[in-house]
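Q: How would the structure tokens look for this protein?
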Amino acid sequence: MTKCTSKRCTRHFGIICTHHQWLTQLSCLSVEFSPDVIASYFRYCSRSTLAKAQLYQWVRRITGRRWLINVGDGNGLEHLTPASLAKGYAAVDVMNKASTCLTESSSALSSEPFQHIMACCGFTGTTQHTGNAARPWEYDELRHSMIALDSKTAGYDIVGQRISDGDYFDKECFCSTFTIDLESEPCLESDLLELTKERLWIRATCGPTSLPPDWTDGLKTTQSAYIPIEDWHWPSCVVDMPPEVIELPNICAADACEPDLSGYCDVKRAVDRACFCRNIKYESCGGSCRVFESRIDYVGWLYDLCGQVQDWHGLPNDWSRTLAVPTPVEMIPWPWTIKPSNNSDISYLTRVRRTSGERTCVSNEWKLRSFYTLNIAIALAAFLIQRGLPRFTGDCRQQWYSYLCYSHTWLVKGMLIAGSQLLANWYNVLLVEMTPGYENVPTIHLLLLWCSIPRPAWMVVLLLGLQEPFGTTRLSAAASVVLAEIIMQFISSYYMLMTIKYGLYHDFYLGRLHEIRRGTLAETMYTGALMWGVVVGLTVFQVMRAMHNRGMVIAALDTLIFDRPSIWQTRAKQTQTTPSLAERLRMTISPCICAQIEGSTQGLEERLLGDHMGRDDSGGRYGTFSVQGEQQARTSPRTKMYAAIVIIMLLLWIAQWLFWGGYIGLSSEE
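A: Here is the predicted structure in token form.
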């Protein structure tokens, strides 16, 4: 620049020069900036692709050449793209996440300082002037030399795109220039945290090839060896953990690196996993940490925390089969048991451990055989009794109406049957309580549980229905048995619904019990309870829908025949008394039940009209069709409903058998 610059006259007055100025001859520059001159600076200017492209543009503008040193070395520099930066770029601020021992070191091959290499590979978001852009050069007459007053930074806009303003560096430029001796890393003798920061920085910037193969060994990172304090969590039984365990996270706290999204180190407070696991094992905690769900959560927490720590043996060898799954006793929904205890002060809601003075329980086969015997005895008794019932002849349909709709006998008998079963269960409970050692057995709970024992009521109803003709005597017996069964099923719903809720809460219906000891028995019990709930739910739904439909018919008849009084008003006039609320309900609901049994809305309408008009149904029938044919036509719906009742009772019986079969097998563990 100095060689091509001279003082020239820029203003004349005649032959006298009135103004001189230092000017640079461009034609001289094109000659003086030869490839040989560029070669002495090319080593530094060619490290970064952007800096090399900037130099190429300047040389081309000054000299007109399309190469720098050799023909062809400018190919690809005229039109750059983001892909021209092979490894991309990063902000210079990431140096703050590097360890001090790294930023103060030098390249192993060139001994060039880290900071100098970073500056050579740097660029800005856009090309910027660093001085006086309007006067970039000035001639110093004292030094007899040109002085640069301005320069341009290499900018990312050379590639034809823009990024945020700031300082960046070319990763390919830096990684190819700064080298590390793997045998003597800059931070090898420093603190382990500094070594971790160094290796993470080199890994995020240049990739793993710049590091030794085992570069992750012993690093203080939160990926495995350390757990960030904000990510630390306790199991659900933390309230029962001893203070020495609660203090372990504070004792084992240390600074560690948590890699950010780019892979650089963010120093965070963390818990040393190895330190924590050296001081804890399964026996370290008791209380709720040993009970069912809390125990399973505690064991899983221990394994996730310390399972991969070398030389840690804080769990029993068979923990996955004994501690991480529910035991047979824990798969029973209720917390009480029927077992002797030498301590009469133990609450029945607390599970009692086996005592040395316990007597051996009877086998499961004996318990199931007692159920078989009971069911067979009831079925045999029903068969013998039904054969002794008197025959009935006459208008069966008329008797069905008069008996079911206007008689309380079957209601009383049904309640007596249910009451006798409850009384028998209560007496059995008293016998259990009177047995020495069983004083703490819960009376009410045991009574409710025994109400769910399977009873062959369906067989009794079936045998009664198979006899012809089906008169009021057998109708009364069947209705009483059905009512008694409804009452008993209602009482047994307490433990059936408890079982369903318990199974849903603990995910027992999602195949969790397959690999568990006695899991098949638990599946049988919970399947039976769920089957019971489905059958009862569908039955209640059908009954409610039928009552709704029949109620609409009654309302329609009362609306259409607006000039007739209501049922209880008519009866009040006939008997000169005002019926009670219960009597009104019976007189309204009973025709609905009768019509449902009859299976014909027309029959309901006729019955209602007959009641309101005071008509006697004993009169003759007229028409071209026989009464026998009409009765046969009406038999099919009645038979279907009777069969539906038997099937529902049979399904409930099967469900209760499954429930008790599984429960007996599980309870034998106690």
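The longest helix spans residues 519-560.

DSSP finds 23 helices and ten strands in the chain.

Upvote if useful.
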